């Protein structure tokens, strides 16, 4: 639950705002973001990684207001598309603090990134190196580039979000020599300034070991590049992927421990080889916005399937949070609009979409007196829920409100049916 959440008379309060007031003022479903929680996590990163760069991974959740918070707190930004870049530029975010990612950036996206003067472009294929070289020459630019390296680390997470084994679409393999070949190709293009290497091993990982192995392998590649080309690359971007707690008993990663461990490893490899210690960047997404967000729903029906469980249907579902359906994710749900002394009943929290896989929480215990009109909150939905939302069954995407100091304000408007019909001929 968000850092500022408390219970008053049985009702949940976040950022000093009672969730019943949120539901009344903004409707449900509603994404609620605890501004103080998110900003404090931005600051925690800035402190733990002092002397390094922290680039928030916008894919977790991006909107203009988040970009303003990043600017206030002095963080950078990782964008993965022209659209994400547009959000950042629309509020005047300094382009030099932006890193551009993607395994298939279009000519238009690369051109825009070059024209804007983004700080770094992380290249992901030989095709892209050639494409970027051509565009840079045309625009008379010399972008700073990094090579995304597939380090071969086995990440203990869902297959769809593990990215460091060779048999997936991202990066250039360390083991096959593709990463070294990419370095050669970039160094042969004077219009590209190779400044470093990048690795992202996967997401929702709570064990620091994998990150450390990846950091050691990247640092070793820096040494190899020095030996082969007599070039010293000044930067390493170690990606993101740090896990948060979704249900009771889940571990979360200790950021301070992570920062110290990564620094120590990279320093040792480089100092032993007589190389200067490179500047590090990390790209956390989920750990910054995940826990500060909750989704508020209203219960519509409570159906007991005898002998099995109770199905509690709420007014949203897989269109506002697809993670359970997509990754088998676990979430915590609770009755938040009142106190209840009733027995806990084995429940499944489901949405209103036309398929049985439309499950938000597979197994949870909700009070037996739960009834239509009650409010349910699902915790830790700040990351990868709104950003992965769809309009399945023509459900409008819910609004996002930020809460702080007893005040709620809309930072992303909810869609209307008119929004959904616009553009249809
Ligand atoms: N950097 C790069 C290059 C990435 O690809 C990602 C995530 C991040 C940083 C941030 O990772 P984080 O710290 O948020 O784990 N939709 C999935 C997660 C996909 C992550 C994709 N890349 C989910 O809902 O679990």
From TrEMBL:
Positions in coiled-coil regions: none
Gene: lysA
CDD domains listed in its UniProt record: PLPDE_III_DapDC
Binding site for pyridoxal 5'-phosphate: 241, 283-286, 384
Pathway: Amino-acid biosynthesis; L-lysine biosynthesis via DAP pathway; L-lysine from DL-2,6-diaminopimelate: step 1/1
Domain of life where this protein originates: Bacteria
Protein name: Diaminopimelate decarboxylase
Similarity remark: Belongs to the Orn/Lys/Arg decarboxylase class-II family. LysA subfamily.
Binding site for substrate: 286, 323, 327, 355, 384
Complex formation: Homodimer.
Keyword field: Amino-acid biosynthesis, Decarboxylase, Lyase, Lysine biosynthesis, Pyridoxal phosphate
GO BP terms in the entry: lysine biosynthetic process via diaminopimelate
Reaction(s) the record says it catalyses: meso-2,6-diaminopimelate + H(+) = L-lysine + CO2
Cofactor: pyridoxal 5'-phosphate
Keyword Amino-acid biosynthesis: yes
SUPFAM superfamilies linked: Alanine racemase C-terminal domain-like, PLP-binding barrel
Enzyme Commission code: 4.1.1.20
Function summary: Specifically catalyzes the decarboxylation of meso-diaminopimelate (meso-DAP) to L-lysine.
The Orn/DAP/Arg decarboxylase 2 N-terminal domain, residue ranges: 36-289
N6-(pyridoxal phosphate)lysine modification, residue list: 59
Gene Ontology MF term list: diaminopimelate decarboxylase activity; pyridoxal phosphate binding
Entry-linked Gene3D superfamilies: Alanine racemase, Lyase, Ornithine Decarboxylase, Chain A, domain 1
One Pfam entry name: Orn_Arg_deC_N
Catalytic residue positions: 354
